[in-house]
Amino acid sequence: xxxxxAILGATGSIGVQTLDVARMHGIRVSALTAxxxxxxxxxxxxxxxxxxxxxADPTAARQLRIALADTDIxxxxxxxxxxxxxxxxxxDTVVNAIVGVAGLLPTLQAIRAGKNLALANKETLVAGxxxxxxxxxxxxxxxxxxxxxxxxxxxxxxxCPPGAxxxxxxxxxxxxxxxxxxxxxxxxxxxxxxxxxxWSMGAKITVDSATLMNKGLExxxxxRLFHVSDDEIDVLVHRESIIHSMIQLKDHSVIAQLGVPDMxxxxxxxxxxxxxxxxxxxxxxxxxIATLTFDRPDTETFTCLAVCRKALRSGxxxxxxANAANEAAVQLxxxxxxxxxxxxxxxxxxxxxxxxxxxxxxxxxxxQADKETRASVLTKA
Length: 381
Ligand code: NDP
Ligand code: MG
Fold this sequence. Notes:
By secondary structure, this protein is of the alpha/beta class. It folds into 2 domains: 4-145, Rossmann fold (3-Layer(aba) Sandwich); 151-380, RNA polymerase sigma factor, region 2, helix turn helix motif (Rna Polymerase Sigma Factor, Chain: A, Orthogonal Bundle), CATH 1.10.1740.10. It is built from 17 helices and 11 strands. It has helices at 13-25, 38-48, 58-67, 78-86, 104-112, 122-139, 148-157, 182-185, 190-193, 203-211, 213-226, 264-272, 286-289, 304-314, 318-334, 340-353, 363-378, and strands at 4-8, 28-34, 52-55, 74-77, 93-96, 116-119, 143-145, 165-172, 233-237, 243-249, 254-258. It has a 7-stranded parallel β-sheet, with helices on both faces. A 4-stranded mixed β-sheet has the order 9-8-10-11, covered by helices on one side. The chain binds NADPH dihydro-nicotinamide-adenine-dinucleotide phosphate and magnesium ion. Residues 9-15, 34-37, 56, 82, 97-99, 102, 120-123, 147, 199, 201-202, 204-205, 263 line the site of NADPH dihydro-nicotinamide-adenine-dinucleotide phosphate.
């Protein structure tokens, strides 16, 4: 089990819940990072006494350096600072809870420094998939999924013999707009999109849940983690978010992982694996819930899921392009510059029109495709 962690994205939804788990189990925290929320980062640093904190925004970093001048905590800044946190010598595991493809380089840095990864940052696997897997193999480290569906699949797979898996069944809450059709989604607001029925999460992933892009990203993530193809991954809408995902085995036995919707279970399992320990999460009372429901996803209204599947089948840089287009489009939507339905349109357009300059999946090619796709989407506002 993990004894010492570095948390990248400590001030976000996953970061804060990771600190809850660390507090409960006495896991040492040797580095913490944020983009610019230095108020919270300072509080966290004073409670957990890491040797290093890093802030991506250089101006905010300088302010935090002054605020922490009475401590012996080093304050690093910029992208370099985040990379330094990803290779903190004392940490055996790096929790990557950064949002977006900004998490890719820190993931690679952590792997190359020989750290195990507790990975919430799904965009790392979507954009960098095969490259990240190759580096994990080369460096002999382990990746533990934090995303609840993938943690569920990982938990279900414990004790399954190799070759027994037939299908991964990812459950989806359906997000804020489940059951609505395109006409009804034309004028939905940012506030409505940010109202998730079951989970309290960062803004970007909450919008991704509303568009079903989140499930599309998760299909790609599952394919990278469990070495399954698009047609071996089913998506099932399950509004209650009690079954976090399932696997179907060769004999058609289905194994599911259940629990109340609380990210601290998958976060904790990623840190305590293979142990099972008491958790701060309440017990699941199925008699209180009484009914669990299941639906097919509406892929005509929520187009992002099918686009991600297409990007997965196309392989190479296509998943990185789908991800980049979505990150830029969600940013525009959150800034009130485009309507909700335009997010899906922009992601589809980016994937449909992308022509890779070279077939090789290098880091440079991924970052270039990411940059060009974002720039192209941002001009569409
Ligand atoms: P939040 O937006 O709540 O937090 C993001 C964190 O990353 C913050 O600490 C933020 O700092 C930091 N950050 C943002 N941009 C950058 C950047 N460019 N460079 C460095 N740090 C940055 O996100 P969530 O916690 O919701 O999600 C984090 C990741 O986990 C995402 O990939 C998401 O898809 C995944 N995930 C989240 C779940 C959830 O329940 N929230 C569930 C499953 C997966 P600051 O606070 O200063 O802005
Ligand atoms: Mg998830």
